[in-house]
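hi got a favour to ask and not much time before my train. below you get a single protein, a line of residues and a line of whole numbers that encode the local backbone shape. could you go over both lines and see whether the tokens make sense for that sequence. a few lines back from you is plenty, here it is:
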Amino acid sequence: MSTDNKPDTKLQKLAEPFRFNDSNVTLRAGGVDFQIHKLVLSHASSIFKDMFSLPSDSSPSQEGSHVVEVTEDAQTIHDVLSLIYPNAHNIDLDDFHTLQRVLLAARKYSMDNLRAILAKTLEAKIHVNPVGVFAVACLAEAPQVARIAAKETLKWSYTEIINCNSPEVNRMRGGTLRKLLHYHNVCADLASQTIRKWATQCPVDHHKNAYAKTSTSSPVDCRQSWWNSYIDCVERQSTTRPIQPDYKSIEFMRVLSEDTHCYSKCSTATMRLIELADQLKQEVQQAISSVQLDLDDDDYLI
């Protein structure tokens, strides 16, 4: 008898923690049988709860157990069961691919509690790979996480987003990616406008302690000398990465210190410069927060 279609030993071992003597349902994934309990599945999934409420006379059976064949692979079912069964062993959710697989399965089977837990886990990875998290959040229909991730992508350049080699991005719908890039462009333009507007409206008296008057220059001269250079610097950064510019960076201080006859090195002046940088950053972030990423049902289709 041919055994070509029989799962290998490694796959069969995935089911070992889930072969209960008192099982009353079998999940079959990729030829691997997980002998588990309807009660546990029904509690975790409204889809399975509704399924088990229907007559099952026409369903195949194994040793008197109701058999449900699913399209997921054995590894995915193993991971899902590991998360919904009490006292089951932990799985590595630090692995991005594992998290994606389990999230998609949880979405498919309406495992709302599990989805909420996994969404929090996914959100925690935003600072590492915001573009990948955005893609997975869209695939898993997690709009709140998707929007948070989209805002974090504003720390990336347009080119970095396009060239992101995360495999999750390749599964994302083209229209959804275009929305993300459009959102990035809108925020970049708004950041540039906000910086220019703030710079022109910021009165000299408001930051007069941020520079020193010398015998050869007036406060207005000083402002024109380094203030415009600084604004040019942060605007260039903002048009590339709308919320990335560090307004208190070494580059900031370098721009100011190039004009040594205007820049005061006293601690009071330095602190005032930092205060101004913080104010500008808040203005930009407040402006960007008004931009909403437009996501609809089509963006969650796989």
